[in-house]
Amino acid sequence: MNKFKTLWQSALLLIAAFSINGAALAQCDFTGLSDTYCEGDEHATLIGDPLGGLFSGPGITGDTFDPSLAGPGVHTITYELAGGGTGDKYYLKAAAGEPWGGPANPNSMDLAFGVGLWTIGNYETVDPAIVFGPATGFVFMDGGSLHASELAAFLAANLPAMEAWVTAGGRLLLNSAPNEGGDIDFGFDGTILEYASPGSGTHVWDVVAIDAAHPALLGPELPTSTTMDGTYYGHGIITGVGYTNVLSEDIDPAKIVLAEKCWGSGRVMVGGMTTDNFHNPDPAAQNWRANLYTYMYNNACGGGCIVTKEVEVFADPDVGLTVAPDVICEGEEVTFTATGADTYVFFPLGPTSGTAYAVPTVGTTTYTVTGTDATSGCTNTASVDVLVNPLPDVTAATDDDEVCFGDAMTLTGGGAATYVWTGGAIDGVPFTPGPIGPITYTVTGTSAEGCVSTADITIEVIDCEPVFAGFYFDDNICVGDCITLTDTSVGSTIQTWEWDFGGAADPNTSTEMSPALCFVTVGEFNISLTITSLYGQVSVATHTLTVNALPIMSTKLDTIIDLGGQADLIATSLSEGIYTWTPENNIDCADCPITWASPTDSTTYNVVLIDENGCKTEGDILVLVNFVKGVGVPSAFSPNDDGTNDILYVKGLGLAAVNLVVYNRYGEVVFETTDQDIGWDGTFKGKMENPGVFTWTLHFDFITGDKGFLKGNTTLMR
What we know:
The chain has about 725 residues and is mainly beta. It folds into 7 domains: about 1-80 and about 305-310, no CATH class; about 90-300, Class I glutamine amidotransferase (GATase) domain (Rossmann fold, 3-Layer(aba) Sandwich), CATH 3.40.50; about 315-390, Immunoglobulins (Immunoglobulin-like), CATH 2.60.40.10; about 395-460, Immunoglobulins (Immunoglobulin-like); about 470-550, Immunoglobulin-like, CATH 2.60.40.10; about 555-625, Immunoglobulin-like; about 630-715, Immunoglobulin-like (Sandwich). Helix content is about 10%, strand content about 45%. The strands form 18 sheets. The chain has a 10-stranded mixed β-sheet, with helices on both faces. The protein has a 5-stranded mixed β-sheet with strand order 39-46-45-42-43, with no helix packed on it. A hairpin with a 4-residue loop joins strand 52 (about 605-610) and strand 53 (about 615-625). The relative contact order is 0.07.
């Protein structure tokens, strides 16, 4: 294959020496392409010599060779550099209009290339990337008349891209005959268009062609002329290096109006000409301008050449990778199997194809194998995921690590999904362990992924003293009462008391030994006491407690009486019970539900009802007393034991104190009292007084604090 390749390349070099359309082909070459590639290799960047040509062949995109795009096999890659005569044509100007206000430039473009076969664009809106792109062969730019500033701005922004385009084979005619501004930087190694005002040294009237055999003077449009004039043929002159001068002033050959040079594989022509409608003779001037466009379009400095090279692309091996199993538990092994190549390298390092391997990392790990074909050296990769589930972190727990023989306990596993215990225990279910002494239980926990781990726990089964719960309380309870529940539990190892009051009190629980509680709800309630011993023994006692409602009683009537009057006191209830009125004085019946009182002062009477359950309620009745002052001694009395008016009393209401003194006709005191309830019975020194008139004096105090004195006569009658 290498010998054939050498002969083929030699033949291409011979072909490159022949001429195409009469133009000699220069020798081309390119670098960056290796003899062989693997299908999966990186893209290769190709560099043509000279620059500016086009690459073609399988896998070629622009100047890039893609082995995977080319595919396996032997491929021919071609590099061809055009010598001109190809690509799109553009004419660029300012948006304000045509230079010098006429159609001379479009007319000469039509004459050179044909109507509709070229494109016009404006400096202000054109896309430089398109105009100066690979598809463009020739660009004519003009900045005449009052449009030089637009050209200068465009050049300042785009000269690097323009120079690169010409380097790659583009052909550029850059011209400006301004009536404004000053010098313009044309680029291309310091080229300057020099401009000054009319009449200065930069304005040229008559020009002459320096080379009478220049191709533009020879056609294709004829006639042409080697000398031309006009109303200023040019408004600027060109200075720069490396140029071949084309037009100069006929008087001063140092004033160059048009020049050209090669730039890379392309060509640039620069000038300071006005439009051809100002030039004579006619039509020679227009033919000359059209011939310049044709010459530039067809003559790139690269000269044109072609070269081909062969490249072989080898197919990448069809590498495969499997693993079994692909889901394991921590510590288990898997086996990788690689296929499709001759040698294999794994990443992460460690596995080998066909050998059991313990995956060291918990979680999902992607293993990649790189397989190499021994003949071509080409490689390919394949990947597979292995999921390593962690072992469960199993724990063993108990509700008590010491348990009395015969009592139940519970073992509970943690950290897994399911659990299996030794010794007959079931996870989370109470059971009775034995015999007495330490016992070790092992739990095997299985995770949701099926991974297994174990844990141990040791409990002590001991011979314990039994405990018995008990309590008592006063069961004659009314709502609102507070009592103490007295613990009577038996056992010296009792450690905790847990009370549940069954909803009878708030709070509803207590951990005191003998708690006090107050009842806020009527009803029957189950009071429960749970005691737990030091060794976890439990005993429960429950009693029913009845909370009775308070009796409902109504009282009436609050009233107002006059001093000496009576007030009804009434208490009624649907409950049977004992009534008690206080204060008892001046009350007719102190234990009757309905009675009356005759107070001497305003009094609040309280009545208490205690029902058959011993529950008590009470109420009040207010009796207001109107005080009426009144005091006196009767004017006669008859102590004859007939039961009527036998005693002489001080009469009056609201008296707090009295002093009654009775005198006979001799002035002797026959009777004296300071008690309103003690009167004179008509005797003196144990003997009945004879009928007659007796004199008395009375000092008195009212309960209001008022005081008084009266005196008078009373007749004793028989």
